[in-house]
Here is the input.
Amino acid sequence: MRKPVAQPTAVRYAALPDPFRLWKGGELRRAQVAYECWGTLNKERSNAILLFTGLSPSAHAASSPASTEPGWWEKMIGPGRAIDTEQYFVMCVNSLGSCFGSTGPASVNPATGKAYRLDFPELAVEDIARAGFEAARTLGIEQLDTVVGPSLGGMVVVAFAAAVPGGARRAVSISGSSASSPFAIALRSVQREAVMSDPAWNKGQYSDNERGPQSGMRIARKLGTITYRSSVEWAGRFARQGITPVGKRAVEQALKRVPEGFGPRFAVETYLEAQAEKFVHVFDPNCYLYLSRAMDCFDIAAHGTAEEVYRRAGFTHALVVGVQSDFLFGIEEQRQIAADMTAAGIHTRFAELSSVEGHDAFLVDLPRFDAAIRGFLAG
Amino acid sequence: MRKPVAQPTAVRYAALPDPFRLWKGGELRRAQVAYECWGTLNKERSNAILLFTGLSPSAHAASSPASTEPGWWEKMIGPGRAIDTEQYFVMCVNSLGSCFGSTGPASVNPATGKAYRLDFPELAVEDIARAGFEAARTLGIEQLDTVVGPSLGGMVVVAFAAAVPGGARRAVSISGSSASSPFAIALRSVQREAVMSDPAWNKGQYSDNERGPQSGMRIARKLGTITYRSSVEWAGRFARQGITPVGKRAVEQALKRVPEGFGPRFAVETYLEAQAEKFVHVFDPNCYLYLSRAMDCFDIAAHGTAEEVYRRAGFTHALVVGVQSDFLFGIEEQRQIAADMTAAGIHTRFAELSSVEGHDAFLVDLPRFDAAIRGFLAG
Here is the structure.
């Protein structure tokens, strides 16, 4: 529904099997997955790494000659980098249900010629996993060397184990979850409520010209931003500084929206405002609701015990990365994933990182993540 | 602005000095503080404990023959209880700026005959402290035995040290703060934004008949409820249970507000819904905004170094209580308060409690709090 973002030319599209049946029972016709690639697929098609994203990014994980803007994991992917494109063929997919080229609630329903909106069938994390794998299959890849994902992507890696047995030899799950905790569910339910309470949401029928529930999306994104970081990081980074020039335009607008004296006063509010401003102009609200709800509902237990799921998955090696300061996808959840994989006979490394950046550490604390992932991939 | 809650007959009112000058520069005319009392004031008027509350409660901390409904700290106050009314005269005040009988934005401005709303002058935590003390003075109490408060009340106790030097011999600060952290500021700013983004807020000019920004207040309270508890507690308490009969009516209403499939599905959402429902019908939205902003802006540094403030305060003994699982008013903040008091020569006990109930533990984990407070008051 958002104004289409100028797609970097590196984006390619994979047609999904038609119909594409969803885990919760619905189906999609003529669905597609947007992806980008780096490196070269070898003759045996055995060196592919499939990368899933967090809730909000596109498939643009790194720059390339065709698309020079830095990607969301720019410093992790490339020649000689932790995910080394001289050795691996790397493919990052935009999640099914998202709005950066993959089919989602903002896409046109071929049956009606209009956007799906709330007619989009219920999405599950399993569908994101399977759609990503089907995208790889369109390139002739029948088994991935490694499937990787942080945040929602870490959850997708767990879902991949259940939904695509034998689909990968190795797995890297970063700050994910094998079943959303009630705390994370509570936070996400409040975020969705903020969007749905905004009268401009209009039960999903907002207008196409960017005038959607921006106010609700702003609240949802600010709350997200809070849960992606940590109290300790912010104490050092912002302390009690007053408004800073960062995000000045966003703050000026925020000040206009409320009576004098009720707007932002602190640097941390400036930061939230700038983060929200970036988000509301690119992310479709209905897509946000579908992806958020899918995360709440994900539970590996729907597929049997975790040990059974991981035995069927067929991974030989796995890396589970958790961050001590992550209070959204807690370290104990990561420890559990590692323990379950180990119990299933997978050679599993558990990297417990002491980064202060919370859930978002994988985007920020690159030295620690580089070392963990580089070491694992090197075997 | 809310329908006036039937005031328990135990509530009494203290007139504040007129005018009552506020820390940020404004003043109030004919202002008052609502309070309740338990126990008997001795002849020397030296056995008084002044209790401040968290953000949302009234002065009804405990029941009494005149008001038999259980109070918000019922099990802590009474004959033989941790705050022993056979020994102490206990007085709990409704915070200045709140809406349960004390003067606040929902009160009538004597200059206009209409509710203040956003014409209420900016409120500071220092004003809550001083208004509480002035209420005690109306009973002839010139120095308290002990000043006590949890949450916002714990912050008020710190503000009391700065604003009322010599006003108490002992202090008990529970899960408070001597300067709001950027993390807490971020959370509260999102809560206020939810209220102010609700079109029914109408820049503070909502109608008087309960049709205020209920949707925004519901979001704010749910987010508050999340930050008052802990992930660990909820993992044990709710896990991934589906909707339960608790708060059934609130959930039915929530389901009506959104399209099918987008309402609550999990027990934890049921709980949030019930908590929000209780709150929105009793708490005035403008009062909420004023108190929330006052918390953000509180910083003991405005009065000098913490050590100087505590030296001037004149406390001989202090108890600082913190909860390890509290992520809103973190344990390190409590440790800092205790360290600052100790540095100022106050005999200070620091009780670091391992309760799993987070910030709200003082309302729930009564055995641990009872022991800490009983032990301190016994001396």
Observations:
- Residues 195 and 216 of chain B are 4 Å apart (CA to CA).
